[in-house]
Amino acid sequence: MTTANRTPEPPGGTATLGGHQVARIGFGAMQLPGPGVLGPPRDRETALAVLRSAVAFGVNHIDTAQFYGPDVANELIHAALHPYPEDLVLVTKVGAERDAEGNWTPAQRPEQLRAGVEANLRSLGVEQVHVVNLRLLDEGEPVDLDDQLAEMVALRDEGKIGAIGVSTVTLEQLRQALPVGIACVQNAYSLLDRSGEPLLELCREHDVAWVPYFPLGSAFPHLPKVTEQPAVVEAASRLGATPAQVGLAWLLAHDAHTLLIPGTSDPDHLADNIATADVHLDADTMKILDGLAESTG
Predict the structure, then answer these.
(1) CA-CA distance, 204 to 210, in Å (whole number)?
(2) How many Cβ atoms sit within 10 Å of the Cβ of residue 101?
(3) Buried b (16+ CB within 10 A) or exposed e, 162-193
(4) For residue 165, what is the enclosing H or E element?
(5) Which of 18, 50, 211, 231 registers the highest number of CB atoms within 10 A of its CB?
(6) Answer CATH for 14-218+255-262 from 3.40.190.10, 3.20.20.100, 1.20.1250.20, 3.40.50.920
(7) Is 68 a catalytic residue?
(8) Pairing of strands 14-17, 20-23
(9) Mean pLDDT to the nearest integer, 257-283
(10) Pair type for strands 129-135 and 161-167
(11) What is the pTM of this model?
(12) Catalytic pick from 68, 84, 189, 213?
């Protein structure tokens, strides 16, 4: 499918994120740095052009992190888009760092969370980040979740955070976090991996945005891929879409709270992602796709 005849409406319609209305198809900045999310992009001008094109397509929700690069994704966002469009919602995350070898290391203590927020403010060139996700990690010394949430609330009270999200959380952790006011949940979830369904149901109950990562199940070589499922390939062929578009369109149709943040450093891939908004799955197709999780589980 192409974007040639798209209307200027926000791609995928809109949903609420941290008190802001955002397009349901956003943009994830993780693929902008070099291989392994390390170092500068292979082509800086293309990376900047992708960011500007995303906004031109109607995207007004960009997901990023200071540790993408590290220090690369945010710099590219600032270089491409600052001064930012008035309606652009920037979302980042804290809770991790990168060491000298590029390994992901925990940064879960309250003072580390604060330092992470401050670093994002500096690199993005803003006084407040609209939403900051607390990404929980199992590695390292355990840190009390209530202490972490208290620091995030303090940062929100100081105006450095507009709203708080959580990422990679269990159902019990989400229940523990909800009383402080949670804007979104970022967890792994796809057409094939519905282990997060209980969390999604809790998000529905509390009007919390659901922002799935690994939306096509393509993060790890040993796991089934959404785009390789025969039923997905058949639906894509019938609809004149790509298998990836069908997998993303299922997520949009499955729940109205879902916001997508597909990432890419390729302009054509970006256009394909945006054109997911034009893929409409009928009831029969949805029923077939709904059954895939059971057949692959």
Answers:
(1) 9
(2) 7
(3) bbbbbbbbeeebbeebeeeebbbbbbebbbbb
(4) strand 161-167
(5) 211
(6) 3.20.20.100
(7) yes
(8) antiparallel
(9) 97
(10) parallel
(11) 0.94
(12) 68
